[in-house]
Design goal:
With 452 residues, the protein is mainly alpha-helical. The chain has a domain at 152-253. The protein is 43% helix and 3% strand. It is built from 16 helices and 6 strands. It has helices spanning 5-17, 35-52, 78-84, 92-119, 122-133, 136-141, 146-149, 153-166, 170-188, 192-213, 225-237, 239-252, 261-264, 285-288, 304-316, 423-426, and strands at 28-29, 59-60, 69-70, 327-329, 371-373, 431-432. The strands form 3 sheets. Strands 1-6 form a two-stranded antiparallel sheet. It has a two-stranded antiparallel ribbon with strand order 2-3. Helix 8 runs antiparallel to helix 9. The protein starts with a helix and ends in a 20-residue tail after the last strand.
């Protein structure tokens, strides 16, 4: 029961932070009128392709008719569409809402499991899972980027990979290797960027363990070969096929690209300023109003809780003994993410206090993601996530705001305290959906309804 309690708690907290959503679960779409429609269509198309057309969802002639177009590079998040097949009693819009809640609840749960794995502490890890899943980043993208809401498999992959590279017997290595491959494929079925960052995290963690073992090829030794095959072979047959299709498609017909860094680069004050998603967004408009991109994709606010925990941990580092110093790792290319903060737990350490050793690794103009592994073991578990200052909409995409203005007063964010002020303060209702709404039918597409 203690293992199942966290996802129930996180689901409850999600609705507590978005009190306007429960009553509208069956009538409105938990998304905006921009990219929200696109990701809504994605879920509809996956179901349509598999159930009605009996074809791969990675190609459609419903776009660029009659010749059609590939959807390999589209933010298709087929995992959510496939899960919706298991919910035939719900409309596509209602299934979409289920997957939004699922992303928050299970994302917090897997982060909790990883934090507990690292720290061995239950209640602090429960806090760590909440910090991760209720981050500013997660709520900001919940307004329309369903593929980015679906980050629930990343912590689970890191947890399994950690067990895999540290496995001491063949059977454990085979089990965790196979599980890591399958979960990595689930990550890929949600988002290509999340998949890439998992690969980077896995490579960094493997190199660190190889350094500790003083053997760069330890996974390829005879005693570990079965475990390595258990990971590599399923990965090639699942993630390898889809990744290869992406590379091949780009070689045959190069992608045009979008979201240039000049427009979506991170402002130096963005990690410390709440932006426009908090209750008093107008107070900080002098900062976020100058951002060149839109409000959601330029918001990388860390949160006061995370900043407080960071300095709290740094202060507590004086308790760490020799050989048990922490590492604050900043992998290159990542964005600000509240991740393994269940590991911030300050436990009782033995040994003489020593000055902490804090390492920073990173490059680029964006503030990278910070992972803390605090005096629990000498494992600087590194991971990287995509930056919220860049996006991955390679297919059809819309604005991130209901009216395209970028003003938070013109839309109602999921999880925002502004929801407590009622409809008129929000300005726009969530998107209304019908029980039979069909994004493939223009006459049945949800409409934005403004509150007078």
């Amino acid at each position: 029961m203690k293992t199942l309690f966290p996802p129930i708690l996180y689901a409850t907290m999600f609705f507590a932070l978005s009190p306007h959503l429960p009553a509208r679960f069956f009538t409105h779409l938990f998304a905006d009128a921009g990219d929200g429609f696109q990701t809504y269509w994605d879920m509809w198309w996956v179901k349509k392709a598999i159930v009605d057309l009996h074809q791969s969802p990675y190609f459609t002639n419903y776009l660029h008719y009659p010749h059609g177009t590939t959807l390999v590079a589209q933010t298709l998040h087929p995992f959510n569409g496939i899960v919706s097949l298991l919910l035939p009693f719900l409309s596509v819009g209602q299934a979409y809402n289920v997957m939004v809640v699922f992303g928050f609840a299970i994302g917090g749960w897997t982060a909790f499991l990883l934090s507990r794995e690292v720290t061995g502490s239950y209640w602090p890890s429960l806090v760590g899972g909440a910090v991760f899943t209720f981050s500013s980043y997660h709520f900001a993208h919940a307004e329309g980027h369903m593929q980015l809401v679906s980050l629930e498999w990343l912590p689970l992959f890191v947890l399994l990979w950690r067990r895999f590279v540290w496995s001491s017997d063949r059977w454990t290595g085979v089990k965790t290797g196979l599980a890591s491959a399958l979960v990595l494929f689930l990550v890929l079925l949600c988002d290509f960027y999340y998949f890439f960052y998992c690969v980077v995290a896995a490579a960094m963690f493997y190199l660190w363990v190889a350094r500790e073992r003083r053997d760069l090829f330890y996974l390829f030794r005879k005693e570990n070969l079965a475990a390595t095959v258990a990971f590599v072979l399923p990965t090639l047959l699942t993630s390898g096929v889809l990744s290869g299709a992406l590379v091949l498609q780009n070689w045959k017909d190069p992608f045009l690209g979008s979201h240039e860094s000049r427009q979506f680069a991170m402002d130096v004050l963005a990690p410390f300023v709440p932006g426009g998603h908090w209750l008093f967004g107008r107070w900080t408009r002098v900062v976020w109003g100058a951002w060149p991109g839109n409000l959601n994709e330029n918001s990388v606010y860390l949160g006061l809780g995370v900043v407080f925990l960071f300095f709290f941990v740094v202060w507590k580092l004086r308790l760490c003994g020799p050989g048990r110093r922490p590492a604050v790792l900043v992998p290159p290319g990542g964005g600000v993410r509240d991740y393994e903060f269940g590991a911030y737990v300050v436990r009782r350490w033995k040994g003489d206090p020593s000055r902490p050793s804090v390492q920073y690794h990173g490059e680029g103009g964006e503030l990278p993601f910070v992972t803390l592994c605090i005096c629990v073991e000498a494992v600087p578990s590194a991971t990287a996530f995509r930056s919220s200052s860049s996006d991955d909409d390679h297919g059809a995409a819309g604005s991130g705001d209901c009216d395209g203005s970028g003003d938070p007063a013109n839309h109602r964010p999921i999880g925002s305290p502004r929801a407590l002020l009622g409809d008129r303060a929000a300005g726009v209702d969530p998107l209304r959906i019908s029980a039979r709404s069909d994004p493939g039918n223009a006459t049945d597409t949800p409409k934005v309804r403004r509150v007078p």
